[in-house]
Amino acid sequence: MAASNQLQIVVPNDLPKVEEEIDYSERAQWLRAAVLGANDGLVTIASLILGVGALKHEAKAIVLTGFAGLFAGACSMAIGEFVSVYTQHDIEKAQRKREKGNGEEREKLPNPWQAAGASALAFALGGVMPLLAAVFISDHRVRMGVVVAATTLGLAGFGGVGAALGKTKVVRSCVRVVVGGWVAMAITFGLTKLLGSSGFAV
Question: What share of the chain is helix, strand, coil (3-state, %, to 5)?
Answer without folding.
Answer: 75, 0, 25
